[in-house]
Amino acid sequence: MVEKTEFTEDTIKSEVKKHYGMKINDIKVVNGGSANIYKLTSDKGDKYILKEFQSKFSGKTILKEINIINFLRDKGLSVPEYVTCLDGKQYFEYNDKTVIIQKFIDGSTQGNYSGSEEQMLESAKYLGIIVNALEDYPYDDMFGCNIEKYTSDEIIDKSIAKHENLIPLAEEDEAHGAEIVKDLKDKIEMLKEVKNDGTFKKATNVTIKKTHGDYNVLQFIYDDKGKIKAVIDFVNAGEMPIVWEIARSYNYIDKDCKNGEFNIDHLVMYVKEYLKYSKLNKDDLKYLPYVYLVQVLSSTYGYKEYLKNGNLDLLRFGKERTNICRYLMKNAKEISERLLEIEL
C-alpha cells in the first residue's frame, strides 16, 4: 500500500538539485507499485524516475537492489540503472524515507490478466534466466528462506487468527461488510481444511533459490511490439520456494485467470518454458499449487487495507485472491497431477 508522500514539487526540485546537481523542469506522478513514483524531466531534456520508498525499506535494502541489478546488468539483462548522487551514494534520505533516482526506460506497462500466450511464455523465460543468473550472485545480502514458513501448521493457525480478528471490523462496514464477512469465514474454513489435509506440509524438498521476490507482469516494461524491454523493482528479492514465484507470475499475467481460475494447459506451458532456463525437481511440480494456495490463503491483504482506509481497489484485489483460493481448493490435485507429467 502506498504511504503518504513527504514531497511537494518544490521539495523534489530542491532535493534533486542538492543531491544530484540536476535542475528539474517537469514532474509527473506515476501511479502503480507500493512506492511514491515520479517522472522527472531535467532542464537538459533528460528523463528520470524518482522513487520514494515506504518507510519499511531501509538504505540497506536499497543497496541490496542496487547490487542485484548491477550484477544482472553485467549478465546482459535489461534492468534499471541508478543515478549516483554527488556524494557517491546511489540513494538519499528525506524525512526518514529512502529515495532513489533511476534513468527513465521508455516503454509501456500492462495490468494483471493482460498477457497474450506469447507474453506469458516470455515472462516464464525471463524468470528462468533471472533465477539461473542469481545462482552466481556474490553478495550475502539476500535473506534466507525458512521452509517452515511455507510448510508448518503455525502459518495456518496465525492466519486463522488474523482472519477472525477482521470479522468484527467487517461487521461494522455498511457498504461491503456482509460480503467481506462471508469471504473471511470461507477462508477460515478453507484454512482449517488445508491444515487437516496436511498435503502442504510435505513440501519440504521444494527448490529454494534467489529470485526477484515480486516477479509479475506489473514489473515489466514493454517495447512497442509488446516484448519485455526491462524487468524492474528488485527491492523484495530474496530466497524462497521458486514454485511460489512461478505460480504467482503465471497467475498474474494470463488473461484466462481473470476470475480466479487457472488455464492448466497454460500453466503447464509456463512451467515447461521456465525449465528451458532453470531447473526444478519432482517435488516442485507436485507441490506448486499447494505452496501457492497456502500463501494466498494465509494473507488478509486487501480486506485489512480496505477496512482501514476504504481503498476499493485493494478490496477488489483481496476478493480476487479469495476466488483463487476457492479455485485451488477444488483443483490443486488435478494441477499437481498435470505438472507431474512434465519430463525433467
Summarize this, please?
With 344 residues, this protein is an alpha+beta fold. The protein is 48% helix and 13% strand.
Explain what you see:
The chain is an alpha+beta fold and 344 residues long. It has 2 domains: 95 residues, Phosphorylase Kinase, domain 1 (2-Layer Sandwich); 223 residues, Aminoglycoside phosphotransferase (APH), C-terminal lobe (Aminoglycoside 3'-phosphotransferase, Chain: A, domain 2, Alpha-Beta Complex). It is 48% helix and 13% strand. The strands form 3 sheets. It has a 5-stranded antiparallel β-sheet with strand order 1-2-3-5-4, with helices on one face. Helix 3 runs parallel beside helix 8 and helix 7 crosses helix 8. The mean pLDDT is 94.
Write the layout of secondary structure elements.
Layout: H1 9-20, E1 24-30, E2 36-42, E3 47-52, H2 59-74, E4 92-94, E5 97-103, H3 117-134, H4 148-151, H5 153-171, H6 177-197, E6 208-211, E7 220-222, E8 228-231, E9 238-241, H7 242-253, H8 264-275, H9 282-298, H10 303-309, H11 312-339
Antiparallel strand pairs: 1-2, 2-3, 3-5, 4-5, 6-9, 7-8
Helix pairs in contact: 3-7, 3-8, 5-6, 6-11, 7-8, 7-9, 9-11, 10-11
